[in-house]
Design goal:
Elements: E1 5-9, H1 19-23, E2 28-30, E3 36-38, E4 43-44, H2 49-58, E5 64-66, H3 96-99
Antiparallel strand pairs: 1-4, 1-5, 2-3
Iron/sulfur cluster binds near residues 18, 19, 20, 59 and 61.
Keywords: 3Fe-4S, Electron transport, Iron, Iron-sulfur, Metal-binding, Transport
GO molecular function: 3 iron, 4 sulfur cluster binding; metal ion binding
Protein name: Ferredoxin
């Protein structure tokens, strides 16, 4: 994989099982109540990806999420610009046969 791994932690979901801190203690610590705290900015270097992915997959409440270029938390890329006039796409009586209007 060439994409950089980036994660985020939703602390509102965390139930404090501590599995993440066990698998990847460099990236997850536990606060005084046992709830997870993300250590660092969420960017995961290649060499730590497996440990963090294991923490992500083992979290029983799915509080750890991977953020990809097209994944949750980030907007998808805008559609490519077209030179077509949107008015040409309208379904009107003139192109009724093309669109298969039913009345
Ligand atoms: S594994 Fe999930 S529920 Fe457990 S401490 Fe980590 S984030 Fe919280």
């Amino acid at each position: 994989m060439s994409d950089k791994m980036r994660i985020k932690l939703d602390r509102t979901l965390c139930d404090g099982f501590g599995i993440c801190a066990k698998h990847a203690p460099e990236y997850f610590s536990l606060d005084d109540w046992g709830y997870a705290v993300l250590v660092g900015d969420g960017n995961i270097p290649e060499q730590d990806r497996d440990a963090v992915m294991r923490a992500l997959l083992d979290c029983p409440v799915h509080a750890i999420m991977e953020i990809n270029a097209h994944g949750p938390g980030e907007a998808p890329p805008p559609p490519p610009p077209t030179n077509e006039d949107p008015a040409e796409q309208l379904k009107v009586e003139d192109n009724e046969a093309e669109w298969g209007f039913t009345r």
